[in-house]
Amino acid sequence: MLDSILNTTNYIKHRIGDFEPEVGIILGTGLGALVKEIEVEKQLMYGNIPDFPISTLEFHSGKLIFGTLAGKKVVAMQGRLHYYEGYNMQQITFPVRVMKMLGIKTLLVSNASGSLNPDFKKGDLMVINDHINLQPQNPLVGRNEEELGPRFPDMSRPYERTLINKALDIAAANNIACHKGVYVAVTGPNLETKAEYRYLRIIGGDAVGMSTVPEIIVANHMGLPVFAISVLTDEGFNEELQPVSIDEIIAIAQEAEPKLTLILKELIAGL
């Protein structure tokens, strides 16, 4: 794996020249418009990058965007990868390892998720302060590459507390409904049954989604500070569970996106 990471990193460095990103950004479902705020210097399609997995979802663009945002040099993944697409966890998290090798000092992650907490409504935001991993594989399974990180990385503080507090302050100052909570990662791609939503709430979850945690594990493995935030696109706590479609989820994510963009921009500006 290390050889592949280095090969991919060297290819990208050759393509972007002396550009050195400080911040890595992973944009979730329906949340790709932040790219419009970036002063783009270079774009690379996933399919043109050696060993880089390709997003199979029609609503994920599949581009690495290099440019400046809020005065900082960034690299943004416009389109993330999911376990349910058929990739293994090492493939899903490969881009995080490459971004770290490119020089990023902080990783920002966004996603769309379903609310499990009756106090967290559809269209609100939730800063992730912890997670529960119910996905069937772990990206650290297999031989450990000591050059990348320790065999048994600590996960007592997987999300950077200073960034959590700053984001909540930014949200409050701009009258944005933004909560703090626990994210549960499941496999997908189906949404949950009423009984599953109830179970996920009982075990301590505030929101549920199909991504993010593998990337967080690998970022912690590599000593990379992480901030993650969810747009809550549906509600799984109602006694009468309402059917929901992916089109509705994307529409709600896009409606909430300006609030997310504002928080991420101000957070990046303060790094």
Protein architecture, described:
It is an enzyme of class 2 (transferase). It holds the Pfam family PNP_UDP_1. It is a single chain. The protein has 271 residues and is of the alpha/beta class. It has a single domain, classed as Nucleoside phosphorylase domain (Rossmann fold, 3-Layer(aba) Sandwich), CATH 3.40.50. Helix content is 31%, strand content 24%. The protein has helices at residues 2-16, 89-102, 161-173, 194-202, 213-221, 246-269; strands at residues 23-27, 39-45, 63-69, 72-78, 106-115, 125-133, 178-185, 207-209, 226-235. Helix 1 packs across helix 2 (89-102). The longest helix has 24 residues, at 246-269. It is globular and about 55 Å long.
List keywords for this structure.
Rossmann fold; glycosyltransferase; Pur_Nuc_Pase_Ino/Guo-sp; 6 helices; single chain; alpha/beta; five-stranded mixed beta barrel
Mean pLDDT: 94
Radius of gyration: 18 Å
Query: What form results from the Cα inertia axes?
Result: globular
**Number of helical elements:** 6
CATH superfamily: Nucleoside phosphorylase domain
Low-confidence stretches: none
Number of domains: 1
What is the structural class?
alpha/beta
| CATH class descriptor name | Alpha Beta
List the helices and strands and how they pair.
Elements: H1 2-16, E1 23-27, E2 39-45, E3 63-69, E4 72-78, H2 89-102, E5 106-115, E6 125-133, H3 161-173, E7 178-185, H4 194-202, E8 207-209, H5 213-221, E9 226-235, H6 246-269
Parallel strand pairs: 1-4, 1-5, 5-9, 6-7, 7-8
Antiparallel strand pairs: 2-3, 3-4, 5-8, 6-9
Helix pairs in contact: 1-2, 2-5, 3-6
Subunit structure: Homotrimer.
GO cellular component, one term: cytoplasm
EC number: 2.4.2.1
